[in-house]
Amino acid sequence: MEVSITDITDVEKEISINVPAAELVPHFDKAYAEYIPKIEIKGFRKGKAPLDMIKKIHGEAIEYDSLSTVASNIYREVVEQRNIKPIGEPALVDMNYKRGETFVFKVAGVTKVGFISITFAFLLLKLEDNSLVRVTTPDKPTSKRQSEFSMRP
Description:
There is one protein chain. This protein is an alpha+beta fold. Helices cover 30% and strands 33% of the residues. The protein is built from two helices and seven strands. The strands form two sheets. It has a four-stranded antiparallel beta sheet. Strands 5-6-7 form a three-stranded antiparallel beta sheet, with no helix packed on it. A hairpin with a 7-residue loop joins strand 6 and strand 7. Helix 1 packs across helix 2. The chain is elongated, with a radius of gyration of 31 Å.
């Protein structure tokens, strides 16, 4: 399996994953196991047709139908192995598969959040006889600027 990670923006990444056909076999076997009980083939009881016959008649449809689940499972494996911390659900951007060949898909998502620096201004109020006499506001954390005014009700 080949994995490449591309930075789209500072916080958004695109992961491209190429999975050889041999690595898809266990995923497709699981999909066949889920479909076998539902499939009806003339001459066999429901769910009792041989797997080879099911693969011949319905194999391509079953494989294509299971690709989004396969992509999701492989993506989660890659994220866990590479210690990527996604935020939210990723979007499946592209998917390319021909039966018996390499499965290529791309997933895009947000991996970290940008932070905005916020400075809080603290007001120090001095009251005399229920009147505001002095307000002190720090201009920077290390220096102070004082503004004086009076306010009467």
